[in-house]
Amino acid sequence: MSDQLKRLIDEQNTVWQRMTDIREAATTGNRDMTAEERTNWDQAEARLTQVSDDIERLERFAKLEKIDRSQVVVATGAKEERKDEGAEREQRYGAAFNSYLRRGMSGLDGDAQQLLMQRFESRDQGTQNDSLGGYLVPDEFRNTVTETMKAYGGLLAVCTVITTSTGADLPWPTNDDTGNEGEFLAENTQLGSTDMLFGQRKLLAHTVNSKIVRVAIQLLQDSAFDLNSWLPRKLGERIGRRAARAWAQGTGIDQPEGITTSVATGATGTGTISSGAAYAYNDMVDLEHSVDPAYRPRARYVLADSALKHFRKLKDTQGRPLWVPIPAPGFPSTLNGYEYTVDNSMPVVAANSKSVAFGDFKAGYLVRQVQGVQAIRLTERYADYLQVGFLGFSRLDGKVDDASALRLLVSPAS
C-alpha cells in the first residue's frame, strides 16, 4: 500500500469519526444540530466525499490487472508458435508498430512493413492503404487499452470476462437449476429423475471505436513523448466509456445487452428523490433478499455515484449508518455490509431509474472481448493542421448469464 493511500485512509477515518461525534452529541442531547455543528458537518462531509473519491481512484488503478492468458479461447486451427519465437516476434512487431505510429508506413524499412502487413486487416476495401487500413496492436498496447477500460467502467472489473482470439459468434450455454433438489428414498424404490434444462445464448462481437484522436506532428517527432503509453490510454478511455455504458444500459441491438435492460426488478425505492433520500433501509433489505441466498456470499452493489450519495445518508433501525468507510487498510468500504462498485455508466438517480444493481456479478453477467484491437493512422486527413489522426476500435459483447444472480433497485416515481 502506498503512503498516499494510507494517508488518505487515515484522514477518511478521522473525518468520519468527527461526523459521528457531531451526530452523537445532538442525539445524546435529544436536540437538533446547532448552526455551528451543521457548518462543521457540511465541511466534514464535503472533505469526506473528496477523500473517498481519491481513495477509490487510487485503489481502482492499483488493482488493474493484465489480461489472463489462460482464458483466451483460440477459435482458429492454426498451430501455436514456440514460446521463445513468439516472444521475439511480438517484440519486433511492437517496435515496428511504434515506428508506424510515429512515422507512418513510409518511414519503415521493408522488414518492418512486411511484419505489419502479415497482420493487416482492411475493413474498408480490398486495397491496402495506410490511411484506410487497420493494424492489430501489440500485446502491451492492447493490455493498456483494457486496463484503462476497467478503470472507467467499474462493472468490467467485477463480472466474468472471457477473451477470444477471433470475433466469430460464440454460443454460450445457460442453465438455472436452483428450483430442483434431491430426494429421500424408501427401500426398494426406483430413483426419480429430473432432466437438466439448458438454454443457449450467443455472444457476438460488436465493434466500438474511439472516434478520432488528433496528435501534433511535432509531438510524434519528439522521442521524449511517450506515445506508447499516452495513445492507448486515450483510446482506452473513449472505448471504455462507451463500452461501459453499453454494459450498463445497452439495448442488445448492435451493441451489448445492458444489465439495466435485462435484469429483473428486486425492489422499488420508497423515499423521495427531491429530499435526497430516494431509498430507505427497508428497500435495501428487500433488494438483498430478492437475490437467492446461494448468490449472496459473493454479492455486491454496483451503482451510480448519485445513488451512493443517497445511500450514504441512510441509517438502519438502530441509527447506525449503512455506509461504512474503510475501517482499516486492506478492508473495503461497504453498504449494509456488502462491498460496492461505483460505475457512473449506471443511470443517475431520477424518477423510475434503475441506478442500483445487486447480486453475484461473476455469475450474473458475462463480457466477451476479442484480442484483435486495431489502430488506424490517418496520415493525410489533418495534414494542413500539422496533425495526424489515430482511431482505435475493438470488438466486444456482454450479456446476462445467470439471471437469478442479479436484481435491480428502481428509484421512486418522484
From TrEMBL:
Q: Which domain of life is it from?
A: Bacteria
Xref: InterPro entries: Phage_capsid, Phage_capsid-like_C
Q: Which residues form the Phage capsid-like C-terminal domain?
A: 133-409
Q: Where in the cell is it found?
A: Virion
Q: Which Pfam families match?
A: Phage_capsid
Q: What is this protein called?
A: Phage major capsid protein
Q: Organism source for this protein?
A: Nonomuraea rosea
User: Species lineage, top-down?
Assistant: Bacteria, Bacillati, Actinomycetota, Actinomycetes, Streptosporangiales
